[in-house]
Specification:
The protein folds into two domains: 50 residues, Orthogonal Bundle (Helicase, Ruva Protein, domain 3); 92 residues, Elongation factor Ts, dimerisation domain (Tetrahydropterin Synthase, Chain A, 2-Layer Sandwich). It contains seven helices and five strands. A hairpin with a 5-residue loop joins strand 1 and strand 2. The radius of gyration is 17 Å and the shape is elongated.
Length: 151
């Protein structure tokens, strides 16, 4: 294996959280084409995320966001399978981002929230954002509830 391949594997591992063997397989299937390998990893990660959706949620965290004006805010409950994952940087970031999304976009219900475009990247929906974290952590993560506040 060349230095370039090792560097590419490290880069994809850091960016996607996918396993090394999954990355090697995707790169082989994509014949070394990084964007194509990234897409293959995304598809396989989402397929795994869909399989994990039925697993029981036993842990999680409550996250909040208050706009700097102090007049708008939101709280969300984000669930996962274990407390270990609830403490990870990926899960924590997701919780903060979802709380900010809820405060900014004021969804009426959970289904609407999950279908909204992510405010930081309109190419993704909130549902996709959650699936990316599921693919990285290997655990079922779900938005359990949210509440929007406004003065």
């Amino acid at each position: 294996m060349t230095k370039a391949n090792i560097d590419l594997i490290k880069k994809l591992r850091t960016e996607t959280g996918a396993g090394i063997n999954d990355i090697k397989t995707a790169l082989e299937e994509a014949k070394g084409d990084e964007p194509k390998a990234r897409e293959l990893l995304k598809k396989s990660g989402f397929a795994r995320a869909d399989k994990k959706a039925s697993r029981e949620i036993k842990a999680g965290r409550v996250f909040s966001y208050v706009h700097h004006s102090g007049t708008v805010g939101a709280m969300i409950t984000l669930g996962c399978e274990t407390d270990f994952v609830a403490k990870t940087d990926e899960f924590q970031l997701l919780g903060r981002e979802l709380a900010m999304q809820a405060a900014s976009m004021k969804p009426e219900n959970k289904e609407e929230f999950l279908k909204q475009d992510y405010i930081r990247d309109p190419q993704k929906t909130i549902e996709v954002l959650i699936k990316e974290v599921v693919a990285k952590t290997g655990e079922n993560c779900q938005l359990l509830e949210f509440k929007h506040f406004k003065v």
